[in-house]
Design a protein that fits this description.
Strands 22-23-1-24 form a 4-stranded mixed β-sheet. 29% of the residues lie in helices and 28% in strands. The protein has 13 helices and 24 strands. The protein binds shikimate-3-phosphate.
Length: 445
Amino acid sequence: MTAHPNPSPMTAGRNGPLKGRLRVPGDKSISHRALILGALAVGSSRISGLLEGEDVINTGKAMAALGARIERVGEGSWEVNGVGVGGFREPAATLDFGNSGTGCRLVMGAVAGCPITAQFDGDASLRKRPMQRILDPVAMIGARPLAAADGGRLPITLQGARDPIPIVYRTPAASAQIKSAVLLAGLAAPGETTVIESEASRDHTELMLRHFGATLTSEPEGAHGRRITLKGQPELAGAAVTVPADPSSAAFPLVAALIVPGSDLILPGVMTNPLRTGLIATLREMGAQIESVEERTDAGEPMADLRVRASALRGVEVPALRAPSMIDEYPVLAVAAAFAEGTTVMRGLKELRVKESDRLAATADMLRANGVELEIAGDDMIVHGKGTVPGGGLVATHMDHRIAMSALVMGFAAQRPVRVDDAAFIATSFPGFADLMRSVGAALS
Ligand code: S3P
């Protein structure tokens, strides 16, 4: 089940300023959701700009195994013919989600509302990640795990509900994956399914459910949360989806341009949903020159072209409340913090421990191996920026694409090159990363 039996090391070094236009691939969160909702809708959905990374391709394979017709009609262009809400058929083989927590957890939710049994599995990284956070709410809806590894981990056999029950569920963490799994399971239930979150997480599922014809309300809950209510058993109708560029992928060239002297990059069509832009807000507070031009909206999702120029950065304090809007961006923010002058304190990073790797530990190791001073205090990370980074280290990526890309970005500006043990997992979220970075002047070998 390991996707990459042959590790492929990669080294990044200094090579002058980064200049030009760089189009990053489609958003991973939206790509997964477009395939899943397309598969649950009646009729045909045309998706353009789909991220053709391994994570999303695995979700597409799962949708085909569950009965949808999925066809690639051009580069990034896919047509999905769905089975209708509750209409998944029992898959003949195990659904293998590879490295992807999002694909696995969202599809578990969608399957939980259908009267079928399916087996879920993934690679060594995904097998370590917590799935009980999905098994708990789907059990309330009426689904039942027939088998699971220790601690509710993969491989899992899930029997979906014959008569799904609408529930009111308060998520135990600010997690869009938990919220989305409950909403997708609730599609097949009669009546109203409600999810309450005490801190708002990314709302792509809500926006796309409406786009496919579901009735859903989203109201403020407390100071920072949301109460989302979905009317069950909607007639989802096939829809056109244009996937904007992924801000979590744009984060890598963005930080690279800030720290490599003389750089000036344009990143076109990047999604700027406010529940995803915590990194941009933080970098601006640090002194980053990031301009947002040509702002527009498509299918409820805002986007803009970003122009970013090399900037002198200073340390800041990043509040815990901002974490949900930049949860995947802390490793590369830590790199920016290492090149800043002064201390950056990042608070409330508990959820980082359960990503593709223990990202808190992996980020700390990545920085220390390259001569950066930092501490971890409880769930906070404190990076002491010196304006420059010695580099010269070998970074263990732990099957984590974002650790690999963050380390390589550090290498573009460090005094000595930075090497990663395995760059293969970059293909899960950002296929073409190395070639795109080279096309604007980066040195990768
Ligand atoms: C995602 C939600 C986040 C994020 C992941 C994608 C999504 O996970 O880290 O990369 O598409 O819903 P959590 O919901 O577990 O925080």
